[in-house]
Amino acid sequence: MKTTTDLLAQITPGLSGASTLTVGPEHTAAKVGSGVIPVLATPVMINVIEAAALAAAEHLLPQGHQSLGILLNVRHIAATPVGMTITAVAEVTKVEGRTIHFAVTCHDEKELIGDGTHERVVVNVARFEERVRRKTVSS
User: Fold this and answer.
1) Which residues participate in catalysis according to the annotation?
2) What are the Cα distances from residue 7, in Å, to 2, 12, 26, 32?
């Protein structure tokens, strides 16, 4: 049986992934309910950051495994208007057991708009789905 170390052997510090999004009206704080100003919503920026982390490591996981976000600590420090493209980058900083740690940044076409850290835990999909299924079964 493979150990966690074996499963994550290909995921090493320095690996990175990126994700982009052109901000549309549907991505604004006013539209998603996180504010009233029509600029990029923080929850949408977080989604793009998570997509960057997936791009960095998910393709290296063994079949039947995936990573799930468990911690996100980010600053959203600058507004991005509709029409601009944002790019998030996630870089693996370390792997501890089943947990992958990332340093994350997000820029629009003009400046840094967010940064922080993100952690994802690797799970066996079948076992995870069974745990979730058990929550829905009446006792």
Assistant:
1) 42, 50, 76
2) 7, 12, 38, 37
